[in-house]
């Protein structure tokens, strides 16, 4: 199976809701979720999923959220042990947990490492205290740096998440912040960074506040891409940078059209079964998800994608990657308009490669313009 097979588990709770975030994440109320009940729900969903996919080797497991670093480490251990009973794990299985620096300490980080997590993805978001405050984060930059240093001792692989093109950011302040970031990377040996351009997502508090974003956001992005390359972490996907060989295997499943199970509130998965591409989605509301997972099952959407839908999705994801995708990766290569492809090559937006589709640096910036033109 090209692209491999992975498991995504979604933990939908956070200590507080960040004003920019439209993920399926909910601030924890006074009553903490019951770990035993949630464990039984994930186990029940894993058992259902294994009935479809048993025997396949897991190349990655990703605990995302929300803030999975709020999960008790014993719960994480119970879920990872159960996954390993249901599916063989690859020898080099990548097992990632997303962590918010305001929720970690030596004890829970040690617990996650002991439970089998071998890659920590730490949400620094910024290395500037005023910006962290404006973003509604529950930690300051000193806590972020301390968490990265602790994590570096405990996990073989470390990734750092930040947001760029934030209100008030300029080329000069970004340059200073990237200096601090690369100093931290040198210090911790972090092998991977995700640098997302801040987006005002409809329905969020930040969108309602409508702050001015930098006019030169594209320039800030270009500056960031160049600095990451010079620091030895070249871009491999629009927002992701890694040392050679350290790309996120789990995220590559999404971008290279692999198969993955998505379990937990609002999680989505893709499975290839008998040569057909299945798209599966689970109940979004945490209480509904919990109740259905414990009873009849939490899957609420199950569609079989047409060859055209499958091809369009693979194209959309594959063009995000620096390496692009082979035309042969599309179940229906006829979705591509060869004349449009030639025009995009002439305009410098696509590389001139006969059996392959690959955006140039400029084309990657204009992906929303490139994609619809490429389709017949
Ligand atoms: C699930 S969160 C990471 C883990 C943890 N919840 C945290 O915030 O530290 C995933 C990442 O998405 C990014 N993100 C969320 N909302 C965003 C937005 N509106 N624009 C750009 N990036 C965003 C953040 O960088 C965040 O680290
Ligand atoms: S950014 Fe992270 S911590 Fe903040 S609300 Fe979203 S998922 Fe939760």
From TrEMBL:
One cellular component (GO) term of this entry: cytoplasm
Cofactor annotation: [4Fe-4S] cluster
SMART domains named among the record's database cross-references: Elp3
GO biological process: porphyrin-containing compound biosynthetic process
MF annotations from Gene Ontology: 4 iron, 4 sulfur cluster binding; coproporphyrinogen oxidase activity; metal ion binding
UniProt keywords, alphabetically: 4Fe-4S, Chaperone, Cytoplasm, Heme, Iron, Iron-sulfur, Metal-binding, S-adenosyl-L-methionine
Coiled coil feature spans: none
Protein name listed in UniProt: Heme chaperone HemW
Originating species: Roseospirillum parvum
